[in-house]
Amino acid sequence: MKDIAIYGFGGFGREVACVIQAINEIEPTWNLIGFFDDGHVEGEENRYGKVLGGIDVVNRYPQKLSVVMAIASPCVLQKLTREMVNPNIEFPNIIAPNVLFFDQESVEMGQGNVITYGGRVSCGVKFGDFNLLNGCVSLGHDVQIGSYNMLQPEVRVSGESIIGDSNFFGVRSIILQGIRIGNNTRIGAGSVVIRKTKDGMLYFGNPAKLMKEQ
């Protein structure tokens, strides 16, 4: 089994640990050695492992190690991954065993993506890097997703929608067919997006309306 660690000691980090456990129950794949997190004390422990240190420890790690990012803030996620310069670090895609792919061979995926329980990915979907999809997220056909996006539980992205980078989608938000979401946009929980959004803005409601600049 390959050594793996999770960056992020919070609730989402524990959920990712559960996904790793589920993968190992089907086929032993990963040896979870613990967590990294600059906001917690080294040695702090939960039921899945201990904090091994922060990003400085990651960058000094002397051997090959897979790291999963479990950081829900797109801007923080992007900052941290760019600061990880250790050539020994790899960023695998972690996908829960019960994620449903309509046609997995037609899906393109970069590195560091996480899809947790109950996800549904239709045909022709394209992922960049470090996209985090929480429980029961659904992506329609030919959706394109950039990098560093956070999709909270039960987000629905309809077919042919195009999503840029560093966006946050709140719980049960919906993106209708063919909509373009740019960069650094925040979609509030339960919102229904029916038209193209502007970069760096917060949208909320049904239909989603521009609320303010972030």
From TrEMBL:
Gene3D superfamilies: 3.40.50.20, Hexapeptide repeat proteins. The record marks 142 as: Increases basicity of active site His. CDD domains: LbH_AT_putative (cd03360). It comes from the Bacteria. GO terms for molecular function: transferase activity. The keyword Acetylation does not apply. Residues 3-82 form the PglD N-terminal domain. The active site is at residue 141. The keyword Cytoplasm does not apply. Pfam families: Hexapep (PF00132), PglD_N (PF17836). InterPro entries: AcTrfase_PglD-like, Hexapep, PglD_N, Trans_hexapeptide_repeat, Trimer_LpxA-like_sf. Keywords: Transferase. Belongs to the transferase hexapeptide repeat family. This is Serine acetyltransferase. It comes from Butyricimonas virosa.
